């Protein structure tokens, strides 16, 4: 796949930003604008964003780095450093690529064009340290990096909210995943040492400080991504919509699960729609759980917060059915460990990471036990990341 005139990426560099800089110096005619777009975690509020509910994500210290320069024509050149792959195309012919990764960039370009933003051809290169398939939103980070970079490069004056919505629209319409807004919003709006409490219905948000010196956020990466993930994601959305329709027939003012109570579900969905009822019940409970968890944080009660994380996991597993054997094993293992405050699967499900709140002093032992046990159980190495909450998209 590599074009003959392209220098290879420097994979051995410890810093993805340095590798990107070296690639750009060797291959670009001009100094690039460089953007860092973060991956995300989510503390609580899972599968609630597309139900107009609330989420509690944060941007992290793993990111996509993208360097970009203008061209004098309408050509597009993309270089994916971590894949040693390159794409060439034209602004006038945006087609989904069989290699798939260019779609995250092309989708953003298409959305900009559809909204009438004046962009010309450009060349960009990107790489990073967000593990792919780990549920840390590397694709949303790439979309956000592109929209952020193009906004700067062509002085488009797009608001931060519109950047997030545009990146989400790229994923919905060009990539074809009906994701909610959480991942793109977190990548753009992330703030160091803060969670974002986002109301996905009203698109209003507040920052909640997350500064606890005695604990660490530990991500345990199952290194599995079961193939059900994207088809089941869209099925869950449809099931939630069906539940809303059943309630709305009696309560026309209801527009999403955010407007629905457990009593309404019991009355209008439970009889005859057991599976839909379970899905909706999980979402309605999770929205309430998030509000309660935010109150825990305000009281500095991480133990109570952690218990709610376990309840979220239970709901995702038993009612929403988006967990899997590997995630369940990690959460059960975590529950028995010293110094563990809370654990649950994170993100869409069917693989990826668990998120764990662990007392600082217990972290090495926790990771060692999890890694050993996971390898014994599944014969798959476990990856563990102790993560910090960082700023969202910015130029560097
Ligand atoms: C994925 C989606 F992209 C998000 O929008 C969100 O729905 C999440 O799954 C589940 O909470 O990350």
From TrEMBL:
Residues 26-66 form the Galactokinase N-terminal domain. GO terms for cellular component: cytosol. Residues 104-191 form the GHMP kinase N-terminal domain. Residues 297-369 form the GHMP kinase C-terminal domain. Pfam families: GalKase_gal_bdg, GHMP_kinases_C, GHMP_kinases_N. GO terms for molecular function: ATP binding; galactokinase activity; metal ion binding. This is Galactokinase. It comes from Chitinophaga agrisoli. The lineage of its organism: Bacteria, Pseudomonadati, Bacteroidota, Chitinophagia, Chitinophagales. The gene is galK.
